[in-house]
UniProtKB/TrEMBL annotation:
Residues 179-237 form the tRNA pseudouridylate synthase B C-terminal domain. It catalyses: uridine(55) in tRNA = pseudouridine(55) in tRNA. The active site is at residue 38. Belongs to the pseudouridine synthase TruB family. Type 1 subfamily. The keyword Ribonucleoprotein does not apply. This is tRNA pseudouridine synthase B. The gene is truB. Signal peptide: none annotated. GO terms for molecular function: RNA binding; tRNA pseudouridine(55) synthase activity. Residues 23-178 form the Pseudouridine synthase II N-terminal domain. Responsible for synthesis of pseudouridine from uracil-55 in the psi GC loop of transfer RNAs.
Amino acid sequence: MNGILPLWKERGMTSHDCVFKLRKILKTKKVGHTGTLDPAVEGVLPICIGQATRIAEYLTDAGKTYEAVVSIGRTTTTEDAEGETVEENLSPKTFSREQLLEALQQLTGEIEQTPPMFSAVKVNGKRLYEYARKGEIVERPTRKVTIYSLELLDDARSFEGEEVTFRIRIACSKGTYIRTLAVQIGEKLGYPAHMASLVRTASGTFTKKDCVTLKQVEEIMNEGNINEVILPVEYALTAYPSIEVDESIEKQILNGQVLPIHALLKENDKIVYSIQGKAYAVYIQHPTKEGYMKPEKMFPIN
């Protein structure tokens, strides 16, 4: 059993919970997820099975799309609705649509974020949430992330109330914390804020329409039709140019040899060599030999 299972993770479960349950349902140990989703978040979570676990990092590194509800008026320890209130401002507020759009525009592109204390980022060998649970605050590394687009989904011309909420759609790079982004939006507006809810609507090329729930996986497995929902490894490699191996270099590719660089690698991070449409090797620029390329991943041909 090899391939990618596009799972719709439901609220209340960790990503590890999903992997644990799938190992039992699919009766295989080689199962891995492609990017943690918090228990309170639902959405697209591609699962790699068998040989596909070799390219899990590619899916983890792929861009993501989310829909979130931002709440202006209160910050929390976790920067989402699960945490305890840190700061509260329930004075009457009024924002025009133009003010919100300006705040979103200022946070589009490459921005800096400081991961929340309740996160899995490691500092001095320990995850931040381990410090947070003990009431300890440590210095956190600031990181650069890219917000490709930040769209206001509500049609209202103005937003009013003691706690103002609105929906946004975010397309972003890996490592982006949407709850931190919610706080940053509040900062641009001059008020405390948190993320009220979140759904991941896309991960790389996978969207909700591609996904199945754990219950559906179990039903399909019992019917003996599991291959209908497990997609081939090639599906996760569509972002990279694919080259059909010809006879002149077939032996070298099959042996994973270092080769003169292909012209496509001057414009792309990776290229995929295929045999009869089946991916066999992913090549990248050689890190030390200029003008050459080397295999980063190899897949057995059945």
